[in-house]
Specification:
Structural class: alpha+beta
Shape: globular
Largest sheet: 5 strands, mixed
Helix content: 40-55%
Number of helices: 4
Length: 159
């Protein structure tokens, strides 16, 4: 007896739903792995009050996404010395961001790796710990998370 069109459609819908669920689970696994790397980095960089930002925080990161952290120090040289003193390889980059008053400011980035994942560390002056820079997407202050919040997100995700 041939299957009806309605039965074929339901079967196709179920298969598509299962595939979507598998993709979502894979993405959650990637996000969890990147967040675990972020936690390690945040512990290592504790003296710079690190904050996780971007797609790793919001859970939309892909497998090749950089783990983005905001660090707070009087100068990028302080962070560079931290890396040099510990023999941690790094490179330096610079990015222009639009600030609250509309002007573009250069931000120092330190790029390194931890457990095979790339970390992008943006260095801000300590005064900027109180207010996150605007998001390049919507102009609102970027969402940032301190270590306890990231650990909580991971615990909830693993539960």
């Amino acid at each position: 007896m041939p299957r009806s069109k309605k039965t074929r459609t339901r079967s196709t819908d179920r298969a598509a739903s299962r595939q979507l669920r598998r993709l979502q689970q894979a993405r959650m696994g990637v996000a969890a792995a990147l967040r675990r790397t972020a936690v390690q980095a945040m512990r290592l960089l504790e003296e710079f009050n690190p904050r996780l930002v971007g797609s790793v925080l919001d859970g939309t990161a892909g497998p090749h996404t950089r783990v983005a952290l905001h660090l707070f120090a009087e100068s990028s040289e302080t962070v560079i010395l931290f890396f040099r003193d510990r023999g941690i390889p790094f490179s330096q980059e610079q990015r222009q961001i639009r600030w609250f008053n509309g002007e573009h400011r250069p931000i120092e980035l330190i790029v390194t790796e931890l457990d095979g994942r790339t970390l992008e560390l943006a260095v801000f002056e300590p005064v900027h710990l109180r207010q996150a820079p605007p998001s390049p997407i919507d102009g609102k202050p970027q969402r940032r998370a301190a270590l306890p919040e990231v650990e909580l997100v991971l615990a909830e995700q693993d539960a």
